[in-house]
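User: Structure please.
Assistant: Input sequence and predicted structure:
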Amino acid sequence: MKIRKLFEFVIVLAAAMLSVQILMACGSGTGRSGPESAESAKNVQEEKTEVAVRDGKTGELEEAARDGKTEELEEAARDEKIEELEETVQDGKTEELEETVQDGKTEELEETVQDEKIEELERTVQEEKMTEPEKEVQMEEAVRSEEDTVREKADAAAESTFRARYLGVEGYGTAAASRERMNEFSYRFLVDDEKRVFFIDNGAKDEKGNYGYPIQNLLKEGYDYDLTAEGTKITGAAEIPAEMTAYEPPVTGEPGKKTLRNFLALAMEPVGTTLYIYGGGWNWQDDAASVQAKGIHVSQDWLRFFREQDETFTYRDASGDGKKPDPPHSYYPYGGYNEYYYAGLDCSGYVGWVIYNLENTEDGNEGYVTFACDMAKMLEQMGYGRMTIEAQPYITPSTAAEAEGTALKAAALTASSDTATGALSGGAAVWKADIRPEDIRLKPGDVVSMGGHVWISLGTCSDGSTLLLHSTPSYSRKGQPGGGVQISAIGTSASCEAYQLADRYMSAYFPEWYSRYPVSLKNAADYFEFEDENTGIFSWTPGEGENAITDPEGIQRMTPAEVLKELFEN
């Protein structure tokens, strides 16, 4: 359309210009005169005009054609883009529509399934010819069942409370349950006759970054608990007390009363009812006193465990064979932590518990369980008396005749005649090689720390044998290494006075124990071996004041036989 109009305009313009040229030619002339010259000029001019018009028209026509093509091309490109955009929009709308249709179909399908279930239920009701009240009851039960299912799923991820029996660490005795992985342990429980595995909250960390493991320090194998859990993690535990026959020890002490007699009376309470457990009295993570070792009087856990065992009990593997470990049937602390901390006492756990009861009148205060070799030193640091090392033993005056020219002679000569005991003084130095174990005389109540063991003296007999209280492994009458808290003897044979006293009192006052275990006789050389400055013999210094112990009964002046009579018969 535009090209046509332009063409017409060019023709009109060309005609106008031609007319003007003709008029100009007629008026001015060409050097010729007459009609012929005029006609010739006219023809020439017309030819020039036609050529000019043709050239102009051709150029203008080509430009117009180019412009038109460009515009047409741009219009075509725009049309394509519009078509593409329309197709994209159409595709998007189609996808949205398909999704909408799909959702609608899904909802319709779900509604259809639900309707079918309702129809099926209605048909069942109709077939069984149920009454209207019965129909309502069944429908309500179906609704409640659905609600219960939803609630159970929600509770599984939220907090729950249930009753269970503790079965121990998963994989106990394997590399997966070693101390290095304590923070990641899983634990076995019996829930409604089904064995299940849970994790346990390790508690808060102390200033050194160590967890407190409060729940682990409450759990005991075979005990029942009310547990609180968040999902699969136990966050709380409360023990369900078991019914037990009451036990009254033959000798009982008074917690918090600081007399020497009371110290020994407290020490007698666990005798004959508390088995030896390696690490017993230490907490689960094995770095401080257990809950039981910070309790007043004998723990019911010790008594319960004793009653569950017999003369076949062993504190580690059967027959004491450490070369054939059997963790599932052993109470030995495999893995470097105390899985059976609650079941009994080792030597330091025992003495630590006695000191706790001497110092306290209620459960749960700071404990006194520490390494056996440090017990005597600890008591000295508490201000209760003096610890003598191997250079300062107690000796008998008779030693003076055999120690001529030595410091032992001077010490023996200064010994008190009424007690037949004395101590080296004045800084005299007598080394272990100069001392015979049978010459060491102990007072009742002395606490002896040696390498790997700690024990309480009941005094040295006239024949040089020593009566003692301790928790120690000893062989049962069936040859199994069990033992525990007991009265024992240090001497050369079963005929010594200390052994005879121990046998008489253990058989008379602790018959159940005695039926399992004979009296344990210890070698003097093993029980007076002091390795360093922290080991030695602690002796109480009776006096007055807060950090003092009194001895109104004169226990330190008594013989072992007199001490036992005072404790058991008076």
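The first helix runs from residue 2 to 28.
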